[in-house]
């Protein structure tokens, strides 16, 4: 029996656009709710969210059996961090702040078993191999790992062709917020200069036969990126959805007139 099929990786290889949602509340309950909404993927964020290894395990468990595929973003692209995330069962990783071919190659080695890489051979003790109940895990795991690299600086853009052409990299994700900051437009990812750089980057990534990805809360821009060839697109996050909905509900209450008669169809929840 081989390692589980990575449905997200297969979709990218087949050119099917994958729409996702960022998870930053670090909550298994929230991950389970969002996994039932129909998104192709959920990103469990350990870079900017208060996530640790046990919390990430719980969220992976909460998503099990859903149609949504899990992506984990570690806080940093370090081999020892990558090893832990793979062993808990992550098959798709998004590595932040990649700026060179050397780092891209290091991350490829980190996700592969020897002799093609340097991943530690310890999955027999871990969730990734179903606790050693997948007999062919070691022989088949490499093929099911999807490595996504995040380019979010001018230095990264300068080396984008070298990063995207690295063998073993499945996709490159453009981080518009950090890129905007590095370009002198802090908090303004929609700035025309930033948008022009993003559009050029998507084309350059695709020219190397790799999947291009991005996160953007503006749905019209998300649609534009899709038309330009981006194939994994995050269109929102759980924190903003909850913050906006709770604020709107209270405002709606204050602006709503009292009912003049009981409504038989009224709901409590």
Folded structure, characterized:
The mean pLDDT is 97. The protein is α/β, with parallel strands linked by helices and 269 residues long. α2 packs parallel to α3. It has an 8-stranded parallel β-sheet. It has a single domain (7-252), classed as Phosphoenolpyruvate-binding domains (TIM Barrel, Alpha-Beta Barrel), CATH 3.20.20. The protein has helices at 7-13, 28-35, 53-63, 79-87, 101-110, 137-144, 154-158, 160-164, 176-182, 192-207, 219-228, 238-255; strands at residues 18-23, 41-45, 69-73, 92-95, 146-151, 171-174, 211-215, 232-237. The chain starts with 6 loop residues before the first helix and ends in a 14-residue tail after the last helix. It is built from 12 helices and 8 strands.
Beta-strand level of the residues, as a percent range? 15-25%
Question: What structural class results from the helix and strand content?
Answer: alpha/beta
Report the end-to-end length measured between terminal Cα atoms.
45 Å
CATH fold description:
TIM Barrel
Secondary-structure element order, N to C? HEHEHEHEHHEHHEHHEHEH
- What's the total number of strands? 8
What's the CATH class label?
Alpha Beta
Unreliable spans are none
Write the layout of secondary structure elements.
Blueprint: H1 7-13, E1 18-23, H2 28-35, E2 41-45, H3 53-63, E3 69-73, H4 79-87, E4 92-95, H5 101-110, H6 137-144, E5 146-151, H7 154-158, H8 160-164, E6 171-174, H9 176-182, H10 192-207, E7 211-215, H11 219-228, E8 232-237, H12 238-255
Parallel strand pairs: 1-2, 1-8, 2-3, 4-5, 5-6, 6-7, 7-8
Helix pairs in contact: 2-3
